[in-house]
Amino acid sequence: MVELNGEETTEYSAHGEIGEEDEAYYWECPTCGDQAEGYLTCPTCGARITKSISLGLINKIAFATIIIGLLFLGTASFITAPAEFEIGATMEIHREEIMDRVDLEDPARVLNDAFRRIRRYVLYPGQVDYQEPDEESGDFSISVTPARIVGRVSEVELQEADDHFMLRITDGDDDIRVRGFNALSDFREQLGGKFPPNLFDRVEIIGSLDLDSQWGAQMYLSLPQRFRVIESFEEQRREIAAIGSADIGEYYWVSGTIGEISRPGQLRVIELEDRGVRIDLTVPDFIFDDLPEEKQNLLTTPGTTVDILAQVGEFRGNPQLDLANPDDPDTIREVQ
Amino acid sequence: MDFLYRPSVIIGYSLLGTLIGSVFCSIPSLHIYNLAGVAFVMWLGVRSLIPYYALAPFFMSMVVAFSFMNTIPMTFLGAFDESAGATLLPSAAMVSQGKGKDASLLTGIGTLIGALLLILLTPFFYVIWPYIYEIVGAHLHWALGVVMVFYIMSEWPKGAGRGTHPWTKFKDAWRNVFAGLFTFTASAMFGLIFTTQSIIPIEAAFQNIMPVFVGFFAFPSIIQSLIADYDVPKQYDSKQINADWKDFGYGSGVGVVGGLMAAYLPAVTAGIGALFAGHATNHQALDKPKMEDPPEDSDLAIDYVMPEMYYRQERNFLISGGVGKIFYYVGAFLLLFVITDMTPGGMGRGGLNFILRPAFSPEPGDYWLISGTILFSAAISFFMLYLVTKLCIKYIHNFDAAMLHYFALIVVTVIIYFMTGIPGLIITAITTIIGMVPVFFNCRRSHCMAVLLVPIALNMAGYGDLIGQMLGLV
Amino acid sequence: MKGLTHFISGVAAATFIPEVVRMSAASRADAGGAVSNSFIICLAGLYAVMPDTMDFKLGQFFSVADYQIDPHPENPDAQEMAETLAEAIDTAHRSGEEIRVQFYPIQLGANEWRRYHVLFDEDEVTIQFDDVVTTSQLPIPNTEPEFERVGRAKLKEATLKGRTTDLDWLNKLIRWTRQKIKGPDKKGSGMKPSTLDILSGTQFAFQKESDGKVYLNWLPWHRTWSHSYVLGALLAIPAFVIPFLLNMTNWWLYGVVSILGFWVHLTEDMTGHIGGSLLWPLFTPRTEGLELFSASDPRTNFSIDYTAVVLIILNLDYFSTQLIPINWWLSVLLFIVIPMGAYFWMIGEIKKNIRKTHGRSIEEAPDGSGEPVLD
Questions:
Q1: Could B238 and A124 be called an inter-chain contact, meaning their C-beta atoms sit closer than 8 Å?
Q2: Where are the alpha helices (H) located in C37-192, listed in sequence order?
């Protein structure tokens, strides 16, 4: 019996039984539908009678491919999303796993431990790469591409001649440098007025996170499309009483009267008081020493009322203040 | 449900890209560099509209859809682009027999299988291909030279060589060989002028090359169709594909070899790749025609039986054309995203890299995103091809073919005018004249590819300026 | 062997010369050659297809036949054709001169050709017409001829034979070698029927030999003077002289590479059925081949093509880029021996399958009109 319209490829079989012979001789051409009689090549259209795959099967295969493709694409787009890094956690890993150990232990071992800890942040292992320790210096690095961080811009440095830029992004406590090599003009051109960002803008950055035993933790940014200002900084004033842990990382103008000043180590802790509520302003020595003398005096004279642009940070669970932009003398003012 | 946001955006843009890419199929004679060029121009327009992470899937799905849907004009409208050269004859022959649906779908299934093979070859792309890429990369100029030498030398006389004197025999047989040599030389000269006279670097010139390709390939096809004044006959709406699974096995092998060659070597198109792959992998002679004893009551001397292997050729040709096409168009893009220690910047080739560098910066993981896009978009495109094929076979015989061709002529001219202005139209006119030679003298149309092959090979070897000076071009 | 096979094995042979590879590397690859960016390897390819180019693009047109058989497209006369052929053979017998007969194809349309066969027996020649075929050599159904299909003509005086017996020392050497490899020649071999369908015609030469029989020589213009090691060396002279005059580094390598390409072609051709006039113009007769494989056998062609490509890549790496991290013998094993083993196994299975299908003896006539026979 010749089966010509089966689901799959049908091979002509000659083992017909008596009585079925007629069927074996007269069949329809699968292409044009004409009677092909005993021919193996259809006399009407030239198709080979014995070669046919049903379109239904082909469609099923294509449909299955859509489903597989959809699952594949969905999974791939989920797992290859940029790895989310918090600035604080990142700097902590770099400190604990690399900087604190690198001079004491075998670099390969340090690299291995740091690599394992970083890998927890990504779903797709290929996003983490590393550079083996250099034979002479022992320097190594781990990079995550793409990695995403969100924070506020605390410093902008443009090197026009080299076409480089550096942004410092902070979460209130820690900060990370974001560098763009040979990219400044490209960023300016493509982002227009949005680049470089204003100080204290909240930005999202997707790039390559590099934990280097020599150069520290940095991010490299090469594509303008991956830089986004989430929220432009608008100057806001907040009373000390209203500052809570939800404000950590934010910038406010804060007014207060200088109270007690202590020096626990390499910094000054200056107490600010407003309507009976107190908050600490910490000024590391290296920042304090760079301040103009007039501002130094202002901050170290108890009883003066000052108006400062401060960033809310945290110490043992309590909010505290840091000078937001000590380079700009206008951000530390005396209230008359 | 936050985690669903990114996947759904990507899937959405892949779908959109597939739909937009299908529209490109109405522009005949797109070369992969044109396609990248058009994509790049589009990208400049849409980069603020599309999130960065959806850009690569969007463009990839566009290319995937294009490689499927250009089967339609190739099969039914006779708008044969260069890469269609591989599938030109059988599909035209099948349409004239009313088997346009088979022709279109065989190519389409080939392309779908090609998409699957692209994904299945992932280990090969990561483990073996980087070595080939780097090793041959250091020898690319002469590799292109070798391709050209064989290409010219393997055009054999097509005439029967009738005559009683060597010269008459020679003249009768050599028409196509002469025409081939002329086309190759003229195209190469034109290519040298085109690339040296233009102030833009050679890679960037690819974006402006559309008028050249239209002149070499699209217009001669359209003019040929107009002269032939051929109307498409009524097509059969069959429920079956006239092929078996073995055909797909044979066809895929040829398609993969030719397609990889085209995806790797600059200016080598799927048509040229298919020629090499066809020569290297043709297994038709595995089963030779049999001369058997004739039936007893016959007065014949022999019974000449063609083996099934011969009947496969037409089908294999279409299937391998489909496979080769997607390797050429899509594979070239996919290789951009294969990042290994040896190839940290991916394995895109010269011109393509140059055009796309500002748009795509391949990163680890992108390969999987792109692979998923290819699968998804390929299957959707296949269904679109299926639907459009059904529409075509239903209505195409009602259309006045000449009108369609005049329409294509006008559309393409307008596109060229808007993209490149009057100089572009002049370039198209010149290249059309060269492109008509193969049409009238029956030699290989791919000889026109000398327009890129010769300048690229010379420039890679660093002789571009020298030759330019010798010809007085610089 | 096919053109591409010769071409690519010529290229592969050139890559075995380390200095050639180093010269060819791009300057940025810094392979340590005295020069770089050379196109020298293209010469190997060019010379490797040259023997066939000279034959098919040139030589065949100089072989003007004494008898031209160009059948009428609409109404060919098979009987008359057979008689003309028989007359030519008899003339060769009578005169002792070599007589050449040219057959032409029958083109009916852009994509339509009438197929016919020329069959030889010791004392008879037969012409048989079959149906119309497309340019892809596929028969078009319902096109079997309405005119008389078969013409037969007895040879009046001559007796045909398919193998020459007048052998010079070179041909004797080759025949002896072949019989050592393959055993004694099969009887009656050499008088194969010819089928004409698309594009080009075919030519036969008939020459009476010392045993009184007429030797049937198929394609007498093919693989004669063009397939000569001596000619290869002569043709390479410009490849020595021009680089020398241009004062190019390693000028002599250009000539060496050219000779290499040409000689690889001739050597490969010796594995087929027709050999070549290996030492032309010193000794002109064409030798037989070793008959190891037929020239169009896809298995040999494909395996040589594949192996050559892999060898090219391995050589390029070995002599210039040096990227492949494994031993050369492991590369050969992994990329040549194992894949080729798998290939030949697969082809073996396919061949088995093909034989099985034939065994079923359901066949149709070439026109697709045969009644299927049930066994």
A1: no
A2: 40-54, 60-62, 78-95, 169-182
